């Protein structure tokens, strides 16, 4: 029996042999035939939050392994997602493009995941609340998003720990006019990153990343198990640790520079250079849940992203030209009225 077939068998309902999917609201498997629910019982929950050390002597151990899973390759964005359980889709969870079935994927074992905590209906409700708060949104947008295709996806992320021993050099400005001066400063500091959360795939766009990056709690991690993925799409990990560190180097550089600026405590820094000695790298390969709502407005594809943990919502949306014009007219009238009032007051 293949690995994929074994997973399908394990997800059969013990009551009627129907196929089960993961039900976020119950944190259990639910049979699609008889409706019965079955708890997911795992003994090693504590191990899911364990971190793995990384160093030069461990690079050779970081090798991908072939996995016989049902992989669907997107012909539009190139993303590869797997489906577990009976619910399959002919569309990509990332971009809504068409997907084709592949037989096997080569990736890295996932160390843990945080299961979906909110279901599809709540995700749609979050999207509707988000739309209702958008200024100058077209009047028909709420109805269009109500008809959006909703995709539940486990997206791959890294968590990184490291200690950065920093030596920095900076210049900053003081005074103004003839008293303006450029001064120099340098110093040493240590920065400790704990559970720095980073995307592990180029298909995790900034919109998806922003929808999931908040309020990450490693205590909520659970062991990787097919039961949590049943009925959802997921992207496997394909990056080595070295590739993951390189892919997220710019984000880490920005965080380091912000920490240094705060340490220097000068408001007009004009140049900043630093050297860092990185030690104590630990990592996890994890999956995090996100709902993606795909819709089109005037033939322009857009998406709304809802975090599968707490419902935080980000999205792309159009603007109503008429509403923008109306807001501009109101602001202009207010400005003119203020100017007239100010001028009249000056004549008194």
From TrEMBL:
Keywords: Membrane, Transmembrane, Transmembrane helix. It comes from Roseobacter sinensis. The chain crosses the membrane at residues 324-345. This is Primosomal protein N' (Replication factor Y)-superfamily II helicase.
């Amino acid at each position: 029996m293949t690995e994929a077939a074994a997973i399908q068998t394990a997800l059969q309902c013990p009551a009627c042999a129907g196929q089960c999917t993961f039900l976020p609201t119950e944190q259990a498997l639910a049979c699609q035939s008889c409706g019965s629910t079955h708890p997911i019982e795992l003994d090693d929950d504590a191990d899911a939050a364990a971190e793995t050390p990384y160093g030069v002597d461990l690079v050779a151990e970081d090798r991908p392994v072939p996995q016989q899973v049902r992989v669907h390759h997107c012909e539009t964005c190139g993303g590869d997602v797997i489906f577990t359980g009976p619910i399959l889709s002919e569309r990509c969870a990332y971009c809504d493009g068409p997907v084709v079935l592949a037989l096997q994927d080569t990736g890295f074992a996932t160390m843990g995941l945080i299961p979906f905590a909110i279901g599809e209906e709540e995700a749609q409700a979050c999207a509707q609340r988000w739309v209702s708060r958008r200024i100058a949104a077209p009047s028909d947008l709420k109805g269009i998003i109500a008809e959006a295709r909703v995709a539940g996806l486990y997206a791959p992320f890294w968590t990184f720990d490291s200690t950065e021993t920093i030596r920095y050099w900076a210049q900053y400005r003081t005074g103004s006019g003839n008293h303006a001066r450029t001064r120099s400063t340098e110093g040493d500091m240590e920065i400790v990153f704990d559970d720095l959360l980073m995307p592990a795939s180029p298909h995790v766009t900034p919109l998806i990343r922003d929808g999931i990056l908040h309020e990450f709690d490693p205590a909520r991690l659970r062991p990787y198990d097919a039961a949590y993925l049943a009925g959802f799409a997921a992207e496997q990990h394909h990056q080595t640790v070295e590739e993951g560190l390189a892919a997220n180097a710019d984000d880490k550089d920005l965080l380091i520079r912000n920490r240094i600026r705060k340490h220097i405590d000068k408001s007009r820094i004009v140049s900043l250079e630093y050297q860092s000695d990185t030690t104590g790298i630990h990592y996890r390969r994890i999956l995090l849940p996100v709902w993606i709502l795909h819709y089109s407005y005037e033939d322009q594809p857009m998406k709304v992203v809802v975090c599968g943990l707490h419902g935080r919502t980000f999205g792309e949306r159009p603007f109503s030209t008429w509403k923008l014009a109306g807001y501009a007219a109101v602001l202009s009238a207010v400005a003119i009225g203020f100017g007239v009032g100010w001028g009249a007051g000056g004549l008194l």
